[in-house]
């Protein structure tokens, strides 16, 4: 594959994952590492590949993860397209200049060879997602917008454009505090563990559901798809949440907070001595 001075580009699949790794995590002891390896091994059979730039010491500099649109782990309909899950050039790679554009070029080349309709990506100016500018620079155009996200595409052949699927419907069965996530992003298991511990420490029940297939991810409760923090089915966060942010969200939403004592007559002494009740719809 093509290369730039100081960086080599590899296409990572089932045969060389152990040798090259997947880029954004290099420490196998990180809690998100092994789940991502297992997730990738299953996805490779669906056509997912990583394009990875490494430096002369084999350290990762940048990567792009793409998959046939049928198997996109985002709530999109992109059959026939190549879909970019993630593009990330680390600060060391950014100093070289041009790696982001080269990764996009390489992905377009792969899509052309595979006879795909084109390449699509979800972008956002918000956190944990690449902004659209680098794609626009390569001739991509925005075909859909929803919430903080855009769908950008570079068309290679005629065919239906990708679109967002509908999210935000609140299934009647969703109650309480819940995280729906996937190991697609290897940073997420750490967030899920941290939030579970905080919730347990607060006496809150936190249901954790792991997405098992692209089909499930395409029906996810948030457009980001692979992380949703929900309260009674309502979306509270659609990306990695730190412990501090989680506590703030709980406080802002009044989840698990002691109820304010009602103003009442002074002589209701018994009620005053009772422990403060927590939100009754939270399992404690
Ligand atoms: C956006 C990004 C891919 C660009 O990679 P790069 O190798 O530095 O960029 P290149 O040199 O190949 O391309 C340059 C073009 O990319 C765009 N670009 C570069 N850095 C950018 C930035 N910080 N913000 C927005 N656009 C940027 C511009 O269009 C730029 O062209 P210009 O300089 O003529 O305006 C890189 O900054 C990045 O990975 N950012 C983080 C993305 C992210 O959060 N991914 C998800 C992680 S989970």
Task: Describe the secondary-structure layout.
Layout: E1 3-4, E2 7-12, H1 17-20, H2 33-44, E3 49-54, E4 60-68, E5 76-77, E6 82-89, H3 91-96, H4 99-114, E7 118-124, H5 133-136, E8 141-146, E9 149-155, E10 163-164, E11 177-181, H6 188-201, E12 206-210, H7 214-218, E13 227-231, E14 234-237, H8 243-253, H9 269-273
Parallel strand pairs: 6-7, 11-12
Antiparallel strand pairs: 1-2, 2-3, 3-4, 4-6, 5-10, 7-9, 8-9, 11-13, 13-14
The structure holds coenzyme A.
Coenzyme A binds at residues 86-89, 94, 97-101, 128-131, 133-134, 137.
Notable traits:
284 residues; four-stranded mixed β-sheet; 14 strands; binds coenzyme A; single chain; Aminopeptidase; 9 helices; alpha+beta; disordered C terminus; 27% helix; Glutaredoxin
Question: What's this model, at a glance?
Answer:
Helices cover 27% and strands 26% of the residues.
Record field, number of beta strands: 14
Low-confidence stretches: 265-284
SSE sequence, one letter per element: EEHHEEEEHHEHEEEEHEHEEHH
Number of domains: 2
What does this molecule look like?
The chain has 284 residues and is α+β, with helices and mostly antiparallel strands. The chain has two domains: 162 residues, Aminopeptidase (3-Layer(aba) Sandwich), CATH 3.40.630; 77 residues, 3-Layer(aba) Sandwich (Glutaredoxin). The strands form three sheets. The protein has an eight-stranded mixed β-sheet with strand order 1-2-3-4-6-7-9-8. It has a four-stranded mixed β-sheet with strand order 12-11-13-14, covered by helices on one side. It is globular, with a radius of gyration of 22 Å. The C terminus is likely disordered. The chain binds coenzyme A (COA). Coenzyme A binds next to strand 6, helix 4 and helix 5.
